[in-house]
Amino acid sequence: MARDLGNKVHRLLQALLEHMDRKEAERLVEGLRLAVKYRDPALIYHAASQLSHDYYGGRLSYRLPQGYEAYHKRYGGAETRLPPPLETSGVDSFWAIRNRRSRREYTGEPVRKVELATILFYSVGVTGRAWWGGPKRSYPSAGALQPVEAYVVANNIEGIAQGIYYYNAFNHSLVEIRRGDFSEDLYRAALDQEHVLEASFNLVLTAVYPRTASKYGHRSYRYVHWDVGFAGENVYIAVEALGLATTAVGAFYDEDICRLLGIDCVIEIPMLIFPVGRRATVD
Ligand SMILES: Cc1cc2nc3c(=O)[nH]c(=O)nc-3n(C[C@H](O)[C@H](O)[C@H](O)COP(=O)(O)O)c2cc1C
What we know:
Elements: H1 3-18, H2 22-38, H3 42-48, E1 79-81, H4 93-99, H5 113-124, E2 126-129, E3 135-137, E4 148-154, E5 163-168, E6 173-179, H6 183-189, H7 194-198, E7 201-208, H8 209-216, H9 220-241, E8 244-246, H10 254-261, E9 268-278
Antiparallel strand pairs: 1-6, 2-3, 4-5, 4-7, 5-6, 7-9, 8-9
Helix pairs in contact: 2-3, 4-9, 5-9, 8-9
């Protein structure tokens, strides 16, 4: 079936091999062997990104494009300061971890601005400084390179117009990217999952791949997922502590999410969506 693509694949692999040293190339070949054996192309990456005693992952030469800083993005849009996050929820952290659940039913009542601010801060916020002056975050990050970005698709938040916003963690503010109701578009992009449509807002986490790739080479695609996983658990815990409801959503059409957010799906990759709303059922 794919015979007509064979020549193209051959040329592309040849070009890739030209940029690789012997060890990297051997990894690629091993990955291809596994991919053929198990009929799973993901195994190419799996093999290419493993560390061993004589292999630390090939160097990559990505550059951060315009609009990307080392630790955040730069937008020209109107910026709105968020209220400071709550200092405490009155809920014990052990309790919040034990009671956390994926909750998909929301009352439709609005979420307050301070609740949004609290979730953002405890999920991906800047919480301190490292000895070299760089920021520290609420989530741990491989090499402290902090690839995770957060966007809010606001639907029903008190005091915030419907639209798509970028969370600037450095001054704890929202930067407007697009005004309007995008909940239907997001719902379609998330394979028609009702909870995405019914949420007061959706928090979309992405990863800026070159931040991590600048140091960790081929292994970075693993690292950025781990970083986002840590931030994602923070979302669950913060939402639970506030008595709200959320669920991680990983099933979505990547290109549709990228189009909505205005990102390219290569340098910056969509990772998870968290619909957030008032909890419909008490359990
Ligand atoms: C990476 C990831 C992707 C997920 N994607 C979806 C999703 O697309 N839709 C959904 O309703 N739940 C999704 N979930 C939630 C899981 O279904 C849920 O965590 C699992 O059923 C366990 O339930 P619990 O979170 O209440 O413990 C996802 C969870 C993870 C960790």
